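Backbone-to-sequence.
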């Protein structure tokens, strides 16, 4: 049974403050089980590459081949200096890969945890942390390639690179909120998974990854509506343009606050009903 808005203010456990408190406890208790969800994430990746020659190194090798193909194919079509474009594409794709993983894996984080939900009593946030941890491991293996490309193209970190760690933390926080929101919506309405995956394929072409803003003319005006543009910019601009994009930071912080409030509200209100949606 779904809680109606009018029930949020009722006395007892159905009151909104009590639901928010329970949601916060779930998030906190799930985080404290870091040994469990980190181990599950590592084990899942090991199983994916079990009995392969290179093991998890395939994560680095596959990204290397992919990014080299993009650089040489689209670099020939872009008037920008080759070294700059190589760094531009590499860093952009690295962050896009992470964001795309957060969105797509967030949709299936609860769906894929059905066996655990039915068999073990754990905070629901545990499954969000596991999925995010797995995505971050993949990101770390791919980041090796990005670091190598930046080194070879001469883009050594400057003072603006000090803003990159906070930017990555902000992206991870958005990833958690996306898991919290999309995980619940997609558990209840399974068609949303396909809708989101299709939307991400379209957004790939609408995000400045293999093209630059000066190449698309009037279409660039529509970039202001693409949230991924700002999240990528707060990492890429300090590394290859040696500047901190304050506008992108302001927009990213605003999006994070809005997404966080909405996600936590949805999670807190519907958390007790999740087990009945499998």
């Amino acid at each position: 049974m779904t809680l109606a808005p009018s029930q949020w203010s009722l006395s007892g456990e159905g009151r909104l403050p009590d639901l928010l408190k329970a949601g916060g406890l779930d998030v906190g208790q799930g985080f404290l089980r870091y040994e469990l969800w980190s181990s599950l994430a590592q084990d899942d990746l090991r199983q994916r590459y079990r009995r392969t020659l290179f093991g998890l190194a395939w994560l680095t090798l596959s990204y290397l081949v992919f990014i080299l193909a993009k650089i040489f194919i689209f670099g020939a079509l872009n008037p920008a200096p080759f070294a700059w474009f190589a760094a531009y594409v590499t860093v952009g794709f690295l962050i896009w890969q992470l964001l795309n993983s957060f969105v797509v894996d967030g949709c299936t984080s609860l769906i894929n945890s059905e066996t655990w939900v039915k068999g073990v009593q754990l905070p629901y946030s545990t499954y969000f942390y596991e999925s995010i941890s797995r995505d971050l491991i993949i990101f770390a293996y791919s980041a090796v390639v990005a670091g190598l490309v930046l080194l070879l193209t001469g883009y050594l970190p400057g003072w603006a690179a000090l803003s990159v760690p906070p930017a990555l933390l902000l992206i991870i926080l958005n990833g958690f909120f996306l898991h919290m929101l999309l995980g619940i919506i997609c558990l209840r309405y399974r068609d949303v998974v396909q809708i989101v995956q299709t939307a991400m394929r379209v957004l790939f072409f609408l995000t400045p990854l293999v093209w630059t803003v000066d190449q698309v003319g009037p279409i660039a005006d529509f970039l202001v509506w693409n949230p991924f543009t700002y999240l990528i910019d707060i990492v890429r601009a300090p590394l290859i343009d040696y500047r901190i994009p304050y506008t992108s930071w302001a927009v990213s912080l605003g999006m994070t606050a809005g997404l966080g409030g909405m996600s936590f509200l949805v999670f807190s209100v519907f958390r007790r009903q999740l087990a009945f949606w499998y």
